[in-house]
Amino acid sequence: MSVYPVPGWLRAFAESVPDLGGDRFSRFLPPPEGGRRHSAVLVLFAPDTVGDAADGSRVVITERAHSMRSHAGQPAFPGGATEEGDLHAADTALREAWEEIDLDRGGVEVLAELPTLHIPVSGYDVTPVVGWWRSPDPASLWAKDPREVARVVQPTVGELVDPARRFRVRHPSGFVGPAWDVEGLLVWGFTAGILDRVLDLAGMSVPWDTGRVRDLPA
To answer: Mind telling me which InterPro entries this protein's record contains (predicted)?
Structure first.
């Protein structure tokens, strides 16, 4: 199986993470007493081995099962709650990715742990872990645990930074944030926010019309 080097832009971003505070990624930071539970998610980039993406990279996103009690049918990075025995956030994220989508952690290079953020709706503190799938087999990813995952999508970075594909969504609460339509999956909320900040801080974003706002479907 081929081994692909980390793209220069992604390596440079990962090396800059120690100098970045949580407020560079979200306005919601963990409360002093901490959230009610800690979790970690895997922001996994992979080489585009099946297409001709100019930047040569894809990102792995899941659609949560529609039967879940919280965030049903919404986009998410692979990940979940920290369990006893997990050594660190990356360990949690990789374990969950294997359980959810059958990702072989041996083919993943962990590049950086982003600052821990907070999700007010769930009360969880979440640590995003950025990884590079150096030995990819895109067809191997599937909804291994259908109780948690409905499907896996892998948009290219080129698609995500294309101004024509970018827009924002407005939640009934008044929240407005970045979004994408990926194979019919509306990517918004925490997942879209992290993607938006990573691509921007990595210097991959290009100017787009932030005034293009859609109401979030009921």
So the answer is: CoAse (IPR045121), NUDIX_hydrolase-like_dom_sf (IPR015797), NUDIX_hydrolase_dom (IPR000086)
* Second-level CATH architecture of 8-155: Alpha-Beta Complex (3.90)
The whole-model pTM stands at: 0.94
**Residue where the block lists tokens 């896996």:** 152
| Two structure tokens written together for 165 | 């594909």
Pairing of strands 37-47, 79-81: antiparallel
The span from the CA of 200 to the CA of 194, in Å, is 10
Residue range 10-35, pLDDT digits in tens: 999 999 999 999 999 999 999 998 87
Domain edges within the chain: 8-155
Q: What residues in the chain have per-residue pLDDT under 70?
A: 1, 50-56, 69-71
pLDDT at 35: 79
